[in-house]
Each structure stands twice: as structure tokens, then as C-alpha cells.
Amino acid sequence: MFWKTIKKVFFLALAFGLIIIFHHFTISKSDQPNKTADLKESISASYRAYSLSSFDAAKDKMVHYAESLYQKELAEGETDKEFKGFTVIKYCWKALDEYKDEINVQKELALFLPLIAVILIIIAIVVSIRLGLSAIRKLDFDNDATSF
């Protein structure tokens, strides 16, 4: 049992290492064609969207663009609402469409990661409940303790 677990962990680590190496070569060729990038820098650059600081920076940038859209509409007299609550969310959605060039894919991914995580957690809970309830069956007390 122990050796099977060690064997699985070894193959998982080997597969993960191969994926990281493959990713390094594809990222360094597409982003920097004439430079050889450091492995650590290329990996951290490609996965920077998954950090909390990246989420905060993307959120601040999105709110800045949303507030500029709000100020523009407020100056034109198209809105009279305050910039808080659902109004902020509404203008953030508008900012995604208006400022597509300024908000790149990495910042957009950083903004949507919490939403994706919540959806995946809900799916995991629903599936585990369904599988857990389907595993419940009538207890069988006819087994003799001496039978194998």
C-alpha cells in the first residue's frame, strides 16, 4: 500500500515537472523570441494572475476605469445614482467592454478567479453530496464474524 502511494506521488511529480518544462519552453519562445528567460521568471510571469496582489491590482484598475465611465455619464446627466454597491458592478461590466485594450487577459483572469473558485466549490459540494447519498444503503447484519 505504501509503495503504491509513493509510486503514484512519483509519477504525479514527474508529470508536473514535464508540464512545467514544456510550459517554460513554449512561453519563452512566444513572449521573448531572442532572449533566453530564466525558468523561475518565466513561470512566475505566466502564473502571476493567480496571486492576491494581482487580484487587488486588477480590481483597483477596473474600479478606476468604472469610475471614469461613471464620471463621464454623470457629467452628461445620464445617471443620478451614487457610485457604490450595484452601480459599481454595473460600471465595471461596462468598463470591461469599453477598455478591452487596457485591461488585458491576465487582469481579466485575475478578476474572474474568485468567481470561478466559488462555482467550482459549489459543484464539488453538490457532487459530493450526491455521491455520498447514493452510497448509503441498508445495513446487512447477516455476516458471521468467523466467515472470511
Could you list some keywords that capture this structure?
5 helices; 148 residues; mainly alpha
Structure overview:
72% of the residues lie in helices and 0% in strands. The protein has helices at 2-31, 39-46, 52-76, 86-98, 105-134. α3 crosses α5. The longest helix is centred in the N-terminal third of the chain and has 30 residues, at 2-31. It is flat, with a radius of gyration of 25 Å.
The total count of helices amounts to: 5
The total of beta strands comes to 0
Major β-sheet profile: none
Helicity, as a percent range: over 70%
Class from helix and strand fractions: mainly alpha
Series of H and E elements: HHHHH
The whole-number mean of residue pLDDT values reads 78
Whole-angstrom Rg:
25 Å
Outline, from the CA principal axes? Answer: flat
What is this structure's SSE topology?
Layout: H1 2-31, H2 39-46, H3 52-76, H4 86-98, H5 105-134
Helix pairs in contact: 1-2, 3-4, 3-5
Structure, briefly:
Helix 1 crosses helix 2, helix 3 (52-76) packs across helix 4 and helix 3 (52-76) crosses helix 5.
